[in-house]
Design goal:
The structure is a homotetramer. Chain A has about 350 residues and is an alpha/beta fold. Chain A is built from eleven helices and 14 strands. Chain A has two domains: about 1-65, Alpha-Beta Plaits, CATH 3.30.70; about 85-335, Alpha-Beta Barrel (TIM Barrel), CATH 3.20.20.70. The two termini of chain A are about 45 Å apart.
């Protein structure tokens, strides 16, 4: 970390900063510039509290961190990409691009199984579906809860698809983990630290959605919460960020794909459905995601979008999905991936 | 709600929308414009699912909501400002502006009581302090938990101040409610719907912070979650939003004060400390908040900001606080408020 | 447009709105809902002033526009994609994806011609290079002005590449148009309406960059300024928007590609260099852009990025560029495009 | 500036950076940390090009600036607040808070003079009014141009008010300067560098509005453009930034007031009308601005907002304005200012 002193600072103020640094276990190195004095602090700490503490000193202008605040999820610590094994040869983070598809919310078993069969036959490897739904309005459909999880399990039996479903609080983690192959953390819960810790203490893979206004560093810090408890199986999922655009609900940050690949060893997938909120954008965004190097896709497919209890406008029909898959496969192929 | 059809739509598509509206229990009114046909839907529903469902129809361009999605927290439903009685004559939402002050995190009893006595003598009515701390980094100080709550309770005994403290998940609600006079929901938990429901099911007042990137409508919807479970005692707290500015951590949205006062009957207070992250901005922002009509302030005060385990840079010293209070009182006075 | 009245409005207030609408030449259609009365206004006006005027009426809550404020650039008015002919068979908006490449700023003739030859031989069709540079700091390099334009012209002679270069104010339009094949409007000038009008009054194609915080509607409105003066040859260029991300300078909005394709007939290209500000992201973002359906790319290439007088960190070397082009060609091919 | 090297960098890469720094005229100071090597560069340059150039080196991770990029507008260079004398004892940046009021656009002489007389008698010292209007839509009213300037001049004669009016391109600067006492740069032109330079080359005071998505540093850099040409008379004007909020057009950044006061010696005023776009928020925001330490206000007042050709919804009536002024005066008074 580098401490920038205010202009025209007294020697005793510099001494005070150096004293503080020594207390915290850092070595201080002064650089006397033309306009400013800066102090380089050498040490191995991760606690942001130290930086904050130094910033309170009256003659310190700012403290600039040099190293990223995350460690275990960083590419520096682990060079090889993490491969997350969902069983039966389905690996997220390998050469194959894994497509997860299904309805926003689980509504009834018949529809779910019908969609599951169709997306499986088009090439999806994982079935998505929400049983616990975090909704902005208390008056919206909140999900079928355990009943929904049971339906997901039956669709898995029927199709061989793995299942991914959301968990909305730490209390429900054991219940959801009893059914799901991958536990999803929604964008609004990205910084629900109790939930992240609980997911770190179990071993099922976690799909961690990026918060609507989160930076990539904050997202990686959220992953660090899970990993620091012992669970390294974290799949990052970009699902659109909030911007000023009004033609779509969210804006896909496609550069999150190469950025995560530079800064972290964790696999990263894209949710083109929430990224736009518009069915007609899903094909373009899916193609772009694969071309940019995504390890997978999470796509909403509903047998009858008009009747969906949530997020109908962004759902593909099974037929749309079947037409899209071969297009995506071709792009994967020219990018040296498989799907 | 108003349904805007795509240009050059066929009569049968219009009929389909009207049929759907009838199914959902709405009456349809067509307006045939020069470039577009729009259909006004008259009904009393709040479920956003209906809007979403209509948007999936192939010939519908967009659906425009007419009424706000919240109801119980709206000024239309209740004209008089809600007064939240914390006991001993301390009322949030009345003529008096209530100042809540104290450290970011509870660190030890001696410091806490010392700060509590000082802020009380300067005119604060409520002591703030975190026992459960949601931190961006898993390696930062996470709070003293129940031990911290006990220290808060002792500071209350000593000073007569009421206490406000954060609760970070639904599981801890009973524990925190056993100690606190007001339960705080942090910005990162504004859409933690399990937590909001749990807080709605108990009767202690709730201080609901606005999310970093939340619109005022989303914030009111979060309050609606609490109120719809039966607890009307919600204090809204603006604590700065995320913007592109890099000189401060967050940006105070001072217009949230008049906007909440227009759209809702709930009281609204300001946290000038988190709103900037900079101690030297706290006086200006506190003055601005009162001048704009805030019902209270939540200010970080630490006896020794340099040693604070969190958020030192934004904490006032007790002395700074004592100097600020008379300035604020003068502004309150010319704005026909008391403090 | 739809006028939403405040709750519990008097009949005379409704009458006043209807009277106003009649004055402005609209027909009024009332819809009496459960909670609100809304008035549909039927007419053919584009002036936002009418909406603003209605919103000032004391009993009007809001006015919701139904039709987009742009007209000539809209897909509704013109169904076929606009093809912009740069001469010699180079067409932007056709089946071929057009790559424009070159340095951020023109620095000297030797380097420029060297880069030009290399990008031409790799398959670029247009040479980019700035002679007038709008820089955030008055102390940064401001461009070679006409001398730079002359160097561009010589590079064109030498290579057959067309040239695109920025114009920063209306006064310079004739000068730049005398040399350039395409005139570029920078992001900071997207709403420099004098400049837009001047460009609309000449006939050379215009490359209009999207503003850093502009919505797609505002961008299309800026294009409408040019087109409404008579010049239909406008190429839209997405160059990254400002977001909260700190790992990159800007964030590529890849969904701008399908959105422009839905709402407008104008071709749309991507600048992957400014979109990230990071050379190592340029290949991923270029691939994504083509997969999403872009009509072209604008890529910074500098023979020696370390010595570049501006934007070195985002420039590819000619060698990087030569390696990237065949990858892009493969994606173009599977997306049924040529390059 | 501080150069952060990538992890595990070779000695020769460090040597290369140091060699580059020497070329650019900097002295290098190495700090060898636990995880990284950083190099402090000591020198007196302002050119961002140097930073960019260093960032292109393959083993450099990032370059962190230590000093702000502006100089002449900085508080470090000039400690005393700049007082801008408009003549007749009207000084912006002194003890008195200067209120500028008037219509968005000049429409006709009778209305303008009527409003001018009313705002003058309520205490305004400057008349605002647009003769050249930059409008988002080419189909909106674009201003009366020189005819409008003449009307402004006549209103000045009649009332003794000074006049402030917008100039939209460098070509019009002499014309507008011939009439106006203060030349306004609109938010969309904040980075129209040709315009800024032209304003720097004449001596009339300039009112520089902050861009909708500009940081305070960018705003100060825009002011630096004007000042670096020789004109020190720059008044900064915060007019609301773009945020995600949909209840208002823009969001007032009230913290811009203390921030400008910390970083710069230039006076700062607030435009509460554009900051919200809503007449009913203007009183709260005006009060907040004065309480936060603003040097002035720029308020839209129109004799008949319903008939305004632009921005009616945010205009106060002369009567609203007369009622607001005494309230503001009281706040100014308790903040030790005059108005």
């Amino acid at each position: 970390m580098v401490i920038v002193m205010k202009p025209n600072v007294a020697e005793k103020d510099i001494a005070k900063v150096e004293e503080k640094l020594a207390e915290f276990g850092y070595q201080a190195h002064q650089i006397r510039g033309v306009g400013r004095i800066v102090i380089g602090a050498v040490g191995d700490k991760k606690d942001k509290g130290v930086m904050a503490s130094l910033e309170t000193l009256p003659q310190v202008e700012k403290v600039v961190p040099i190293m990223s605040p995350y460690k275990l999820v960083s590419r520096i610590v682990k060079k090889e990409k993490t491969r997350i094994d969902l069983g039966d040869g389905i690996i997220v983070g390998g050469e194959e691009i894994i497509v997860m598809a299904g309805p926003c919310a689980v509504e009834n078993e018949k529809n779910l199984c019908e969609v599951a069969e169709k997306v499986a036959s088009a090439g999806a490897k994982v079935l998505r579906g929400g049983a616990f739904k975090p909704r902005t309005s208390p008056y919206s459909f909140q999900g079928l809860e355990e009943k929904g999880l049971k339906m997901m399990a039956r669709a898995r039996e029927l199709t061989g698809l793995k299942i991914v479903t959301e968990v909305v609080n730490s209390h429900d983690v054991p219940l959801v983990a009893a059914y799901a192959d991958v536990l999803q953390v929604g964008a609004r819960n990205m910084q629900n630290f109790s939930l992240l810790r609980a997911l770190g203490k179990q071993h099922k893979p976690v799909l961690l959605k990026r918060g609507l206004a989160a930076t990539i560093e904050e997202w990686l810090m959220a992953a660090e919460y899970i990993v620091s408890e012992g669970n390294y199986n974290v799949i990052l999922c970009e699902r659109g960020i909030r911007t000023f655009e009004r033609y779509t609900r969210n804006t896909l940050d496609v550069s999150a794909i190469p950025l995560v690949n530079i800064y972290s060893h964790l696999p990263v997938i894209i949710d083109p459905s929430h990224s736009s909120g518009e069915r007609q954008l899903v094909p373009s965004l899916s193609r772009a995601a694969i071309a940019a190097g995504a390890d997978g896709l999470l796509i909403e497919v509903h047998s009858n979008p008009e009747l969906a209890l949530c997020d109908g406008p962004q759902s593909l029909t099974p037929q749309d999905f079947s037409l899209l898959m071969p297009e995506l496969r071709q792009i994967a192929y020219v990018c040296n991936r498989r799907m």
